[in-house]
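Q: Can I see a sequence and its folded structure?
A: Here is a first one.
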Amino acid sequence: MAASSGLFRTKLSKLKFRMKERDLDIIMLQNWSNIFYMTGLRTAVMTRPINLIVPLNGDPVLIASKLLERTIRNEVRWIDDVRFWTEFKEAKDEEVYTPSDLIKDALNQIGIRAGKIGIEKGYFSVQSFERLKELLPSGDFSDCSDVLGSMRMVKYPEEIALLKRAIAITDSVFKIAVEDLVRRGRTELDVAIDILKCLLEKGAEGASFFPMVNSGRRSTLLSTRPSKKKICDKEIVLIDFGAVYEGYCADITRMAAVGDIPESQKELFKKILEIEEKTLRVIAPKKAACDIYNYAMTEFDREKLPRSIHRIGHGIGIDYHEGPFLGYWDETPLENGMVVAVEPGINLTDFGIRIEDAVLVTKKGCEILSKAPKDLYQTA
């Protein structure tokens, strides 16, 4: 279900429109997620820089290591100007090109020697930036990270279809996880490994992140890997994972109880679930991301619960955490086509609870994409 060349050309036209709004003469991308978004290049090689040069007037140029030539020829069909720098000589008389050589040649051919240059300051290394300033001593460099970030927030129908598939795979594996995998005596790591295997068997190409399986006190930990701790009787277990399907990431969280957990934990789970479901009902176009957060926090206050989280959700797409962020600081208006993960939660001393659903913002409200039951799963 690879994206069509037409979709990439549509993205290119939209990017150039944004560039014109910002008075940018050229944009240079190094962030792999943004390069994948603009080109369809699925292969991420973090140790070898890949550069996408997009001039306001002219065609894009993709620059990469010659070692990736076959891969790029296979995955990127719509960009005609692809240039490869030499990493290892294949013949004694072969001319050697560095990334800087090819960037310099491309800029000269495009006719850019000055002007306003957009770069992703959060992703360019200091070395790359210093070299770029040497190539363009008269350039006016501007951070353009938000340009691609804002474009990626609103998904095209093709992207929504891929996200729906990733979420459906995740839903199916949650059923297996709680019915067959989460058991007392098993380690968190064993369960996580089995979840990863199930994702692959169900058609995922991988996991958005290594599955989180946190039991007992470890359910209070955020963004942590599973441990070799054994799951014990009368413990609550937080399970957070997502499938990757053709480059797009799901992210869902559910809770399980091993044996008979304390009534206080069951009651708190019900309160968090009620807050999550109320929050889902207020998601709609034109509402600011921070308004969703503020609504959830009002519900926390009403229930006299501590505010132990700094945001209650985030966008999902090529990255499992991307804009918009449902936090107090993000004033981004929600739009039709955005896909967000809504995950209110609470962390106390002995345990934590979080429930997370993937939601598509529609013209009139939202569509809940994740279908895995949200009850507190009871396991043996």
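Q: Show me another, different protein.
A: A second, unrelated one:
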Amino acid sequence: MYTQYRKQSGGRRLPTPLWALRSDMLRDLIVFFLQSRALVGPTKVTERLVGPPAARLRRAQAILAARRERQAAILEGFRAKLAANPGDKKLAIEADGMETYLRYTAQDGGLATIAAIIFFYYRTGLDSVGTGIELGLKSFHIRMILWRLHRDAAKLAAAGDERFLENERQLQEWRAGRNDKFERKARARRSSIPSSLRVGDAVVYRNRPATLVAALGGGLCKIKNAAGEMLTVELGALEK
């Protein structure tokens, strides 16, 4: 016997979106996600949103269920080809993807699984691997579904939904702050002397002894060589 532990993710590439925390946004996003998967209705997002969510959801689920017989036949074709050519990795990936899709969409078009992914990933704090273990899916499938949810949330924002517009604004503010933070750190690295060096230290530049005089910023510094000449060189070119 053994015990499994699910560690929470130590960090996120993106902040937790509003739609992962608000049930009304989550409902509308999942319905739109399933509509997009079923290619229900017109191509314009605003026209797809006409009608109550429950009716749009039932229609999308009915279309997805009607496709299952044809998709199962495609999967059997993949398996037959794999039996004849077991070394075909691309075909194996396609077969695995189709089998996974048919498994988690069997009851409701994937509604429960998508909601569970958001719950485990955002509300519980598991990473894609932990979420996949809980749901019997591969981490790749978890990340792909999350990516598509973010894409559809951006479409709803572009269609003028104020709730999703606010989500996009918060995301843009986070990205701007993150870029600022990275830029400040980069400037600090470029303008400061590495902790291993100090002004006055003996250094080696192009196999010749010199003395570090000052940091100039932009990854440059001033050194004094053995002949007493002052040179401006890159910090990365120095050796201790």
